[in-house]
Amino acid sequence: MSKKDEQGPTADVAARTVYPDAQAIFSGRQLALDAIKDDCCVVLDTNVLLVPFDVGKDSLEQLRRTYQKLAKQKRLIVPGHVAREFARNRASKLVDLYKSLSQKRNFSQLQKGTYPLLEGLPAYTELGKLEVEIDRLLRSYKDAVDRVLDLVSEWNWNDPVSQMYAELFVGDVVYDPEFDAGELAQDLAYRQQHKIPPGYKDAAKEDNNAGDLLIWHTILRLAKSRSKNVLFVSHDKKSDWWHRSDGRALYPRYELVDEFRRLSGGGTFHVAELSRLMALYGASDDVVSEVKREEVRREEVQVSSETSSTPFRDAFVTGGVASAMKAERAVISWLRGQPGATVLFGDHGGPRFVCNGSVEWLVVRYFDKINAVDWAVRDLLEHVRQFLRKQPEAQVLLVVVARGMAAARHIAPQVLAVVRRSGIAGVRCLVGHVSSDGNFCVDDT
Question: Which helix (DSSP H) or strand (DSSP E) does residue 140 occupy?
Answer without folding.
Answer: helix 122-153
